[in-house]
Sequence to fold (485 residues):
Amino acid sequence: MNKQIIILTFLLNTYVLNAQNCDCEANLNWVRQTFEQNDAGYTYALETKGKEAYQKHNEIFNLSVKEINNTTECMQLLYQWLRFFREGHIAIRPIENSKNNLTKKENQKEIILETKGETITVDIQDFKHYIEAKKEIDYEGVWDLSPYIVGIKKIENTYVGFIITSEVENWKKGDVKFKITLEKNKIHSIFHLRNRTTQESDEVKFFGQNYLQVGNFMMKRISPKIQTEKYIEDYMQLIQAQKPFLEELNSTTLILRIPSFDRSQKEAIDRVISDNKNKILSTENLIIDLRNNGGGSDISFNEILPFIYTNPITCFGVEYFSTKLNNQRMLDFIHKSDYGATDDEKKWAQIAYDTLEKHLGQFINLDSMKTSEITMDTVYTYPKNVGIIINDGNASTTEEFILAAKQSKKVKFFGTTTFGILDISNMYFVNSPCNEFELGYCLTKSLRIPKIKIDGIGLQPDFIIDESIPDYEWVNYVNRLLNSY
Fold:
């Protein structure tokens, strides 16, 4: 009898799973409901923008969703719906190798067609002979865009980037990867990501003659062969670094490059700091290059703070929004190995979970204080001057580090305004009902707001580096200023 009940339950669950509605309208309703009930910034956004604006936003998307008939377009629409609330710390991302539980042949065919996109037929050997013979240096050529080799061919006023070879299964030879359009002295690019969603940008520029940036993506010329300028190669090694490192610029200045504060980078950051401690403490100037460091975990920058510290650092706390779904993240932190939590962190998470479960539907400050203060016993003489390079690629945890570093008397910031996404934070990802995509939303709200807002504003540098100074000259510019103090 028990066996029969188990089998019947399994069959019923299987039926419900297979009967789950996977169309875009159902997905939008699920995203809306999940976000409204769980996101820590939902109520704050409504208070800021108004319920009427939100109602109109929903009316527009309720109509638009009826015209969507494939997964990629649906995910783009869902992401645009989320952007009503903020520009970052939101996500709709596909689940790799997801099975949509669709059994109809026409639906399976639609998914296959969806991955093909636009193609172009090019005789590769003829194309290579053509670009090798060209005297003019422009976008045309063969480029390394790992994990792809792409060709760029000019067709009328558009440069078309197409796949020559690919290590990605759903991208084949001849597929159009991106387009760069020149029209009326304006430049615009459309770039197709690995999952076939698109990014548009007006930022297309050369670094020297062999590196080309299209939106957020950098590629290196393979053909025609042109000698690369040394200062460009030095810059590329700096900006494309995957790991932190420290180098000596001259006898008075060191540069510390930190590409990411991701939790997985903490050990590498700490090692660079410990291996070079004596050198840092005996050198007058330190440049910390944070460009395009999009954040990660606060613990990743802890070992840097002692070298820039001059006085107590005030830090604002956060409030966790307690719901059954949100509190599950504390259990994930305890039980899932990919979080890499220590025993002490797991103990904290268990206490946090128990506290949050007693206050469902409420914002809870787990530390019971609005602000805390970091104090240290030692103020080091060197480095005497610390120049931190920032740009609009800095967000989240990196902005938290910047807020802390700004309170040091020896620190100055150089560059451009940061992205501005810190007030609503601590992202959590949950699968959609049919496991097509993940929804990313936030669990916490900063106690800085509304009086000290970062989101949508960003953090300003002390010294603006404008467009007249090319990216590859920023370090030298900062070095000259630090050495002129």
